[in-house]
Predict the 3D structure of the following.
Amino acid sequence: DWTSDVFIDSTVADLKEKIGADKVVMGLSGGVDSSVAATLIHRAIGDQLTCVFVDNGLLRKNEFEEVLDSYKHMGLNVIGVDAKDRFYKALEGLTDPEAKRKAIGRVFIEVFDDEAHKIEGVKWLGQGTIYPDVIESVSVKGPSATIKSHHNVGGLPDFMKLSVVEPLNTLFKDEVREVGRALEIVETIIGRHPFPGPGLGIRILGDITAEKVKTLQEVDYIFIKGLKDHGLYDQVWQAGAMLLPIQSVGVMGDERTYEKVVALRAVGSVDGMTADWIHLPYEFLGKISNEIINRVKGVNRVVYDISSKPPATIEWE
Ligand code: XMP
């Protein structure tokens, strides 16, 4: 029978034996998986683990500062890297979703590699890969290679001659959360919705600019805070906003406006492989829509996505 305590004890023992006196480097994303994986590794080998948390400029509003703070409180040895400009520069003019993913993945590896090289004698790369990631990345290699490339799985560049340690690669998300709670990781991290590695980069349809990121961060912040304030956040697997590459006509006072449209999305799921749109209360949607249009400059229309997966995907890109 699987219990989180048994899993933790045996995993920590395995990690100790496997890693010994070696050093491990690991990228943290602020998400549940990498946080739980890092905590397990930290339990096993303490400060032989160095974590790297990269600000790619595509995170949620205030996310970098808040999450970095939580990690420090958890006792993790973590380096925060502000690489926003490197990412924006690499993304300039890119509109194709896969091209954007590749650029984000490539810059992440460059930034991460720079940091890893500063640690003397590191032998291992820690990863927060969970079981469904393993399955999805296998299907990417299949004959219909049109499925999105999940840049944060596998795919180690040759120049990083590190062995991989993935303590969660047999677990599903709900098990990861159970383990995280048993490890007493704060609920703001454990209960967090999944968030894609490329972040807002694949929620801004078309090309990415710092200004668009700022707009979407404000929209997303109002939506997510609203879900939390109305007790809806925990009933949703994943939620977010998409900034659409179109403008629509609106009216403000006597003036005609021609501004951006955002789409809100909230889905229920167990593993992200299939998902149903959530029937959020109309009153809630109305309130959030008003708040967004009144408060976020440059947005004059809000729509709600009522598509399920399949055939739609959770993300729009
Ligand atoms: P889709 O859009 O394929 O998303 O239904 C399924 C789950 O995967 C996340 N997702 C990604 N995660 N890198 C990631 O790390 C990616 O490129 C990526 N694309 C989608 C998505 O947020 C959802 O949880």
Residues 140-155 have pLDDT under 50 and may be disordered.
